[in-house]
Each structure stands twice: as structure tokens, then as C-alpha cells.
Fold these 2 entries.
Entry 1:
Amino acid sequence: MTEVSLTGPAVVTGGARGLGYSLAQALAAQGSAVALLDILPDVADSAARITAEYGVRAIGLVVDVTDQDAVASAFTQIAAEIGTPQILLTAAGITVWNDSVDVSAAEWRRVMSVNLDGTFFAAQAFGRGLLAAGLPGSAVFVASMSGSIVNVPQFQASYNASKAAVAHLGKSLAVEWAAAGIRVNSISPGYFLSDMTAQFTEQNPELAREWVSRIPVGRMGQPGDLHGLVTFLASDASSYLTGQDLVIDGGYTAI
Ligand SMILES: NC(=O)c1ccc[n+]([C@@H]2O[C@H](COP(=O)([O-])OP(=O)(O)OC[C@H]3O[C@@H](n4cnc5c(N)ncnc54)[C@H](O)[C@@H]3O)[C@@H](O)[C@H]2O)c1
């Protein structure tokens, strides 16, 4: 039997703010040491707040997840400082709204690079460390309901395609690493309140109303609505659950 302790060290990409930071808090609340990776320079401050609030070890590293070597180096540093990561949450992600006929090669590549390449590079470093140490682990990729439905009214084909790929990457790695006791799942949130969505809804409250009109539970998700699912996936409570994408969207995709 393989065992994954929820108190194993965790890495959270995109952990400086938004859903990543909130989910790092949830893991820390269960006793995990956490390492936050982000391009934002205040990622170290975010880590310090987690230590102050939950009393666990937390480090924040400025790392661009699109840089494979930088991600690998960060995992080596994290293993030395807080132990080999046994939990991975990939929340680093970007979205760009644009008509597809106007999308440049650079814009397309940036979205794919952060959302898909970045997820892969983090997972690769995570798997490499666990396989070398002979340890089990659990990875949770933050995909999106946009990987299985097409949002309206905004156009975001690059984001939608990248998130579909993230979910299938999770299934692929789950099969590849299952025998080693490494589980890989993805979560697909619907519309959640975060820094990412605030930039749109604050400028355009009518847009938020339009989104909410399509959500059966009648509100956007709060970051805390993801805590139970992610701590479940990170823990032994989900020991036989791997290779799945779990949609958490207030019922959006049910209608
Ligand atoms: N908010 C939503 O409604 C929603 C819904 C579904 C999925 N998601 C996904 O959840 C994840 C978190 O989104 P959020 O809403 O909290 O957004 P956010 O913009 O608040 O947070 C994303 C974080 O990723 C970091 N980041 C961006 N590019 C990076 C890079 N190259 N390297 C390292 N870090 C990088 C940002 O600095 C930021 O801290 C994203 O993957 C997003 O696609 C969000």
C-alpha cells in the first residue's frame, strides 16, 4: 500500500496570490510545509504570511514556470530546505481574451507556455524527485472548466485549449507514474473570485452578472470553495483516485 501524508512538503506554483495562495493556506492549515513559486517578487512575503498564520515552514521563490531549468533548480533547493515535495499544486496560469483571428504567435505561445509547459515542467521536477527518493506523492493540476466547455461571451480559445491539454497531461502522467505511488489529478474550477477574474469583473460588472446568470448555485466561487477538494486530493483519503479531472463549478457545466 502506498501512503501519501497530507503533512508532506508541498509546492504551489502561482502561489503568491489568488487561488494558489489560498490553496497553499489550506495545505498549511493541515500541517504541510509549503514552497510557493511565482514570478511576482512579493512571493516571499506571501510565504512569510503563511508561516505567521499557520506556524509551518514556508518559502517563496521567484521562478518563472516556463523556464525548465529554473523550475528544476527550485525543486532541488526546496528538497534541501523543507524536504522532497510530496504534494504539488500547479496554479500558475494566465488568460488572454482575443478574437482568434487576431492572436499573434507570441500571444499563443505565452498562454501555452505558462499554462501547459509550466505545468509540465513543475510536474516533471516533482516526479523526478519522488522517483529518485522512492517516495509516493500527489499532484493536483489546476485546469479549468474551460478545458471542456467554451466560455461566453469572451473569446479565449488559447486558454481553453491549454486547459484541455493540462487535464489530459494529468491523466497521462497518472498512468505513467501509478506504479510508483504517484497520483496525478486535475481540478477544473468554474468562475472563481480571484485577482485574475477581478481585473475583468471590476471593469465590467455587467459581465460578472452575465457569468453568474449561468451558474446554478447563483454566485461565483470563493477560493475557500476549493479547499476541501484539494486537501482531499492531496491526502490519503483519495488513495485510489488518480488520472481524473474533477469539475468544481457551482453546476455551470451541468446545464
Ligand atoms: N479564477 C478563476 O475563475 C479560475 C477558473 C478556472 C481556473 N483558474 C486557474 O486557476 C489558476 C489560478 O488563477 P487565479 O484566478 O488565482 O489567477 P491569478 O492571476 O490571481 O494567479 C495566478 C498566479 O500565477 C502567477 N504566474 C503567472 N505566470 C507565471 C509564471 N510564468 N511563472 C510563475 N508564476 C506565474 C501569477 O503571478 C499569479 O500569482 C490559474 O491556472 C487559472 O487558469 C482560475
Entry 2:
Amino acid sequence: MHLHHPLKTRYLSVALCTGDAVRVPVWILDSGVPGPALLLVAAQHGNEVQGSEVIRRFIEKAAKRSLRGKILAVPFANPTALRQRRPHLNMGPEQPYADDRGHNMNLTWPGNPKGNDTARVTYAIDQAFGEEATHVFDLHCWSVQMAPMVLIDDEPEYRDLARKLGHRFVHVRSLGTVTLAGVLHHRGKIGITYEHAGQYEVNELEVLRCLRLVTNYAKAIGLLRGRLEPGDEPVLFSDETDAVTVKSPTSGLFVPAGCRLCDAVMKGYRLGHVLSDVNLRTTEVASPVRGYLRQYGAFRNNADVALTGRHPYVEKGDPLAIIVCPESDGFSARRGCKGGKSQTRPA
Ligand SMILES: [Zn+2]
């Protein structure tokens, strides 16, 4: 492969509490031309690995393009948690995410050289790139039933940028003061977080979707040349839309009908069916509104660390889908539909 720009691999060496060291490999792609410095970080949580592949492909693509500024990339921000195949350091089986004992990396920024082993790694990454970066894109993954989403702070500049990314769902919230995006935001830089759908896996469609997004990010800030790639239309902001939760009409096994997250569903569109464990009747589940799928499938807490959380057995009233309704429809979920239209037929 011919590269216009040389890709350098460097290693951040971090001294741990035990006296051992861990090495964090990083990539630097420097055009040598003044411009933005985009910091890409993935796998702060060791089970959230889709962004690592997105970074690899984006770097490969960017190296062959006309570039201004530089890309600073940390594909595996938390190597020890990655090797343990867990969200945070030293977690046991089925231990909830929130039970982090101070090791949730994205709550440790800007790190601490005398802190616990996670805060030390955070500190090393921040020391290496935190000042130089003008923009950050922090790649995470959440449960496979939840649509991939861009997370931004509530600022007009962020909204403009988020629109250009061309991704269906944008969640607007405070980025906080201890997350990577939040810390850089408070330093006057641009910090955007992203959640892929699906942990413990690398899904090709998820990778392609995010690759388009990060390419548009790079173009929007002038790092890459060229026109923005066409994306989702419309882009839906969480504070400008309503959402309807479709609840299970009965207990049983929810069998999804193969709808895809982020896609449009029409009113009456079939979402799946529930096979009752009580009387073996099949109940169809349809969308009560026209909108876009933000959540789909049997879903419960800790679906991200325990397989029981992903089991398709649902109880009556459990959420089966969340559908976001564009404001342009003049629809209000608050006064609108309460639940899914469903009909029963023998199994
Ligand atoms: Zn995460």
C-alpha cells in the first residue's frame, strides 16, 4: 500500500502500582501541514471493541488521502481490561458495570500518575495527547439492543457538527467533568463520544456506519478534504423528539422480525411476536407509530455483562422496542399512543 503520510507506531509505558509496567500502543499520522489534531480513542472499556477496528480502517484510509493536521489514535486505551475481556480492570463474571471500584476508565480523566492502575493509564494518554488534540472522538459500545448514537454537549457548535456527521441518533447531555470528551470540552476543545450497538463483538455493519461518521467528522473539521458522505436523513436529536416504548403484551419468548436499529418503521409495521410460556399462543407485536428504531429486542439491566440480560424471554410490560418520532410528524408521545397494537393467533 502506498501511503502519502508515514504512519508511526509509538508506545506509552505506564508504571503500575505493583511496579510492573503496561504498554499502550498508539498511532500517529502527521501530515506535516498545520491543521486540526484529531484524537481517536477506543476500548476504554475492555469489552467495547468495535471502535478499535473503525480506527484501524480510518487510519488506513486517511493515510492515502490529502490531509491537514494530524491523527492521534489509541485503538486499545485499556489493554489490561481488554486482555481480561471485561469492561473494567479485575472484574468478576456478571459483575455490573456500575460496580467499578474506581476502575471505570471513562470516569478517571484526566488521570492520576499516583492513582490506581486505570487512572495511571488515563494519565499517560492525556499527557501524550490531551494538550495537542484539538478534537476528540471517543468510541464506546453499549448493548446490542440499543441503536448506535452520537453523544454531544448542549452547545450550538456541537449540534452543527453532529448534523454533518450524518448519523441517525444524537443524544444531547452534559459530558461531565471526568470523561475524556468532557475534560477536553472544558479545555476548550471539541469532545464527541460515540456508542456502537454491541459489546464483546465486532459487527461489520456497525464498523461501516461509524467509519462513514468519523470520515465526515474529519472532513467537517478540515482534516480531510472532500464533500461529506451522505448519511442518515433525518438526524434526530434526543431533546427535539419524542419516543414511544412498545411493551410486551404478554410473557413469553420475544422473536424479533428482523428490523434494524436506526431504520424507519411505519405505523403497523410488524416488530415480531411473543410465544406465550403459559398457553403457547403467539401474539404479534406491531409498531403503534411511524418513527425510527432506537431500541429493539428483549432488553434488561446488565445486558452488557451477563448473558441472562440478553435472554429473549420477556415478562408482560417489558420493553420490546423504543421508536423515536420525528417532530415533523406533529406527533407527541406524551399525549399519543400508549402501547403496541397487537393481535392474537393460534401457534
Ligand atoms: Zn464504554
